[in-house]
Amino acid sequence: MGRIAAEDVLWRAMGDIRKRLESHTYPDLGAMMEGYAEAAVELAFAGFRQRLDYSSESIDALDEILVQVGESPDMDLDFEVRLWGSYLGEVLRRRYAGSWELTPYPGGVAAVPAVEVRGARMFPLMKVYRRLTAGEEEDLPSFFAKITERLGRPAQVN
């Protein structure tokens, strides 16, 4: 498939996913973040030929996707941050048995989605925003390594 055809497939898939997500009513923040994360998994495969499986290894693939998304002149920053940030947050939430909450971002006024784990708050949507706007210096594998160092081993979920 040529580059133009591949881009058409990507934009069509993204438009369909966006319409579906934005027309859906979610019972709570956690359900909405899970819904967006599942859509990210779907779009990663359909549009970028990457498999996102909520594993720590998938962070590299997510970072590669964000590099491509960030290069697009047609990027809808708000939607991309919600989509890919939800996936990053779900990886963290599942890995450490955390929960989603709305809380003010440090230094900010508005409440934003955060993942709470044992009293620590992580802001995955803000991290994706910085990755898309600041570039390489905000890479996700380094961010994930720092979190793993601070939080330690994944939660044991039975």
Q: How do the strands of the widest beta sheet line up side by side?
A: 1-2-3
CATH architecture field: Up-down Bundle
Q: Spell out the helices and strands N to C.
A: HHHHEEEHH
Work out the count of structural domains: 1
Q: Assign an overall shape.
A: globular
SS elements, strand count: 3
The CATH topology label is Four Helix Bundle (Hemerythrin (Met), subunit A)
Please write the CATH class name: Mainly Alpha
What secondary-structure arrangement, pairings included, does this model have?
Blueprint: H1 3-23, H2 29-48, H3 58-71, H4 77-96, E1 99-104, E2 111-117, E3 120-122, H5 124-134, H6 140-151
Antiparallel strand pairs: 1-2, 2-3
Helix pairs in contact: 1-2, 2-4, 3-5, 4-5
Keywords:
10% strand; mainly alpha; Four Helix Bundle (Hemerythrin (Met), subunit A); 158 residues; 3 strands
In brief:
By secondary structure, this protein is mainly alpha-helical.
Structure, explained:
By secondary structure, the protein is mainly alpha-helical. The chain has one domain: Four Helix Bundle (Hemerythrin (Met), subunit A), CATH 1.20.120. Helix content is 62%, strand content 10%. The protein contains six helices and three strands. The chain has helices at 3-23, 29-48, 58-71, 77-96, 124-134, 140-151; strands at residues 99-104, 111-117, 120-122. It has a three-stranded antiparallel β-sheet with strand order 1-2-3. A hairpin with a 6-residue loop joins strand 1 and strand 2 (111-117). Helix 1 runs antiparallel to helix 2 (29-48), helix 3 crosses helix 5 (124-134) and helix 4 packs across helix 5 (124-134). It is globular and about 45 Å long. 32% of the residues are buried. The mean pLDDT is 91.
